[in-house]
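Hi P.,

Sorry for the delay on this. The queue was packed all week, but I finally got your sequence through. Input first:
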Amino acid sequence: ITTTHYQSPMTAIQMNMTTNANKKQGKAVWKLPWVVFFIFLYIYILFLINYSIIRRYYIRMEWNEALPGLDKTFMRKVTMKSHMTAGALAILLGPLQFVSYFRKHPRLRLIHRWSGRLYCVCGMLSSVFGLWFIALKKSLVGGINMTISFSLAGITIGALSLKAWQTARAAKWNSNGENNSGNSHNNKAALFQTHRNWAIRSYAQILGPALYRYWYTILLLTGLYRGPSLVADGLQCDENGVCPEYKRPFDNFFCWAYWVSAGLVAEIIIYYLPTTDELNIPFSETSETTSLISSANDSETETTAINSKGNASAFNLVGCLLAGIAVVVTGDIFYIIFSGSAKNET
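Then the structure:
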C-alpha cells in the first residue's frame, strides 16, 4: 500500500496556514456588499414570484393581463405557466448551491447535491418550455427583435444548466477515484473550480428574467423611464400580440442588455474569485481532513477573499453600488406595499 502522497489533517492545516501568510500580498475582494445585494435582490424576487406567478397564474388566472394573446390556446397557457414555475424554482434553489456550509460538511453534502440536481433540471425545463412557448406564438410582444433575443437567452439558460450538471458529475466522479497522486489532487481541485464557475454563469442567466423586471422597477422608481406595460394609453397590440410599446428604442436595446450584462457580471465575478491554487485547498480522500481544512479556511474567507488578479477596487466599488441600489429599491417596494395597505384600510 502506497502512502507517499497522503496528507494528514494536521499537515494539511499547516500547509494552508503557511499559504495564508503568503497570500497577504494578494488583493482583497469584499464579499459583504455582494452578499447584501443578493439578499435584497432575493427579497424582491420573492415578491415578484408571489405576484407574477403564484397570484397571476395559479390563483387569479389572469392570462391576458400577463401577456397579450396568452389565453388564445391551451398549450400557450401550459408552456408559459410551466416555464415560469420551473424558472422560479431554479431561482429559489440557486442560493443553496453557493452556501459553503452545505458543501463542506459531509452530513449536509447531500442537500447541496440533490438541490443542485433539481436546480439544473428546473433550469433546463424552464428553457424547454420557454422556447416551446415562443415556437407556438411565433412572435413575442416586442416583435422579431425580442423573439430572437429571448430565444437566445432561453438556449443559454438551458445550455449553462446542462454544463453545470455535467461539470458537477465530472467533479463527483473524479473525487470517488482511488488515485492518491499529487496530479490527481490537482485535477480534482481544477474540476471543482470549473463546476463552480459554470454554476455561477448558469445562475446569472437564471436570474436574468427577474433582473429584466428589476431594472425596469428601478427606472420607474427613479422616474427615468416607464416600462411598456405602464404607458399612459395602455398597450395597443395587433392581432399577433405584438405591441409597439415594447418596440421603442430603449426596450429594443434592453431586451438584449438584461441577459448579456448578467453574463458579463458573472465573468467578472469568476475572474476576481480566488482560484483553488490561491486558496490552497488540498483534496484528501478523508472527509475528516476536508472538514478540518474547511474550518481553517472559514476564518479568513468569511468576509473577504484574496486573489492575485491585481487591484480589486473597481470590483468592490461595483459591489457596494449594487448593494446600495438593492437596499433602496427593496425598501421602496416595502414602503409602497405597506403604505398602500394602510390607505386601503383607512
